[in-house]
Write a structure and sequence with these properties.
The protein is of the alpha+beta class. The chain has 4 helices and 7 strands. Strand 3 and strand 4 form a beta hairpin.
Amino acid sequence: MITIRKIEARDWPSVWQIIEPVFRAGETCAYSPDISEADARKAWIDAHPATYVAESEGAIVGTYYLKPNQPGLGSHVCNAGYIVGEPARGQGVATAMCEHSQSEAKRMGFRAMQFNIVVSTNETAVRLWQKLGFEIVGRVPGAFKHSKLGFVDAFVMYKQLRT
């Protein structure tokens, strides 16, 4: 069973263990692979109004943030970022976090959710977001500098949450 809750200060070491290898790999997230732990904490937690953790059997297995995609007149559309720890991949954690984030987004008054840079080579994520109702509304050629493949396309994905 997966439970999702707001992050607490004591959760940071576990969250860092999950996000650090993903950032360092440079394959799916736009954060610099050489980001410091302090800067990662600022970027993942401090820069967002809401950050959550997913737990299974008492261990943190994933994390996500939720924020306005743009300020002011674009603030009715939210943005989210998700990372699942390696041992928990393929167990429904990303699905649970995405569904939770949509509920939270609606509760917070957002009308839609937009992912700005879904790496085209991250086929698992693209399939999952499509399964959960997101559409590819744009392709940005060469927008992501993949650590192994060089410049690859990125998708903008979007889902209306309320009319």
